[in-house]
Amino acid sequence: xxxxxxxxxxxxxxxxxxxxxxxxxxxxxxxxxxxxxxxxxxxxxxxxxxxxxxxxxxxxxxxxxxxxxxxxxxxxxxxxxxxxxxxxxxxxxxxxxxxxxxxxxxxxxxxxxxxxxxxxxxxxxxxxxxxxxxxxxxxxxxxxxxxxxxxxxxxxxxxxxxxxxxxxxxxxxxxxxxxxxxxxxxxxxxxxxxxx
Length: 196
Ligand SMILES: Cc1cc2nc3c(=O)[nH]c(=O)nc-3n(C[C@H](O)[C@H](O)[C@H](O)COP(=O)(O)O)c2cc1C
Fold this sequence. Notes:
This protein is 42% helix and 20% strand. The protein is of the alpha/beta class. The chain has one domain (20-189): Rossmann fold (3-Layer(aba) Sandwich), CATH 3.40.50.360. Helix 2 (43-55) packs across helix 7 (175-189). The chain is globular and about 65 Å long. The protein starts with a helix and ends in a 7-residue tail after the last helix. The structure holds flavin mononucleotide. Flavin mononucleotide (FMN) binds at residues 28-29, 33-34, 42-45, 75-76, 79, 109-113, 138-142, 168.
């Protein structure tokens, strides 16, 4: 009998832990990038990993099936063509345990004032009803641009919290400032986290 009660308690704890699941979905472009030279890990990827370290959320990177060129100018051309064609580039794999996940961070660099098309591929594929969505991005001058509103409009069945924009060079080169900014932001929007 004791064993059954212990098992039931374990299952209950597991299900409540899963119900509070958080996921960080992000796209980021490594290689040659504006203001930071050639980088091994993208700026948004670094920001995503800081959020993961502070919140314990799972990471899911949107990795394009067809990789973007490493060279900055060539990447700009592909991004322009995708935006003009309103393309929905495919990514590899899928997010796990979507149903159990109640908070979804969505991270991206600003590309020509917008969210890269591959992030739309993801956002249009999933049902966000009842989820809490938390945007974050890196940029080199545009801040969030209008991406907060774009996400609020597209994911209107979700509760969208105020996002955070960091300059790419800060995310890339200044870990202390990144941790401080992310930690302060998480406190402001009421997301549980360690102080970093
Ligand atoms: C195709 C492309 C377009 C960009 N457009 C903008 C822009 O409109 N505004 C801006 O502030 N930064 C722009 N940037 C700079 C990136 O947003 C910035 O470098 C970002 O940190 C890159 O993040 P990542 O390394 O995660 O890809 C652009 C970069 C690329 C490659």
